[in-house]
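Moderator note: this is an archived Q&A kept for reference. The question asked for a predicted structure of one protein chain; the sequence and the answer are reproduced below.
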Amino acid sequence: MDEIPMPRVHILATGGTIAGSGASSVDPGYRSGVMGVSALVDGVVGLRSVAVLTGEQFSQVGSQDMNDGLWLSLAARVNALFAADEADGIVITHGTDTAEETGFFLHLVVKSDRPVVLTGSMRPASSLSPDGPLNLFNAVSVASDPGARDRGVIVALNDDLHSARDVTKSSTTDVQAFISPGAGLLGTASYGRIRYFRSPTHPHTSGSEFSVEGLVAMPRVDILYAHANMPADLVRASASLGAQGIVIAGMGNGNVSTDVANTLADVAGKGVIVVRSSRVSSGDVGRNIELDDDGFGFVASDQLNPQKSRVLLQLCLASGLGSGPIQDAFFRY
């Protein structure tokens, strides 16, 4: 009987806390991304028994320094690895600050049903009790699992599996720092033992209309945080500095003051796409609820938080969509 070959998993290391190091095992301060991919792999006992591993140091940054250029390069690399059949699954080690944004971007532009799994850690590798090694073990296990196919990009942290569409960071320091409000977990992974609870219900990866092939830059989209007595001149400043889109992290159901709403309507009339999201951690932003989106020319974000709304709006603008199709996209994705 022929032996079943081990799955091939390629690790793309981008830096982050999982590769961080501090002055001592109990020092809360540390530098992100100082460990290389080989040290990360060698630090996880039994990892090479899960899959045939290859790895590369894609970048060495804290995820606060992730940017559009790195996203485009990362998407191109993932798509190239799959197109060349060089991996059955890919793990991306990443800082937690912007993991949800990188994950959602890849969720919309990777053109394969093979698993892409983001992981990271809340504690640096030098910590007294680092969470990174087990997170990496679980992530490689998921990337090796045929059951992970066609579930889009998965974020694997602290034994939980999240869809990149739904996940958000909810704590600055807790090890249990990520939640998927409303939608809930995709599943769990405990010491490599995987259970799935559901599959994503919105289009993703090979089912997504979005592609960044040949794209060298992303449109500028700004996020403005709404608050009591918010000055409307922030809207004018954003538009004057070249933003093609503005996402409002609105109060409640995506609300803003009358003055801000009128100013947003003015820039929307001049071609800037305005998306209303919410600074609240869960719930939908409905269209034409308290604000007249039809009259103002706004887009309602539906279920996407401000940072995810920015990603989708960038891709919509890069695809040349107008406000009507962009609203449709927010309802679909």
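Archived answer notes: The first helix runs from residue 37 to 42.
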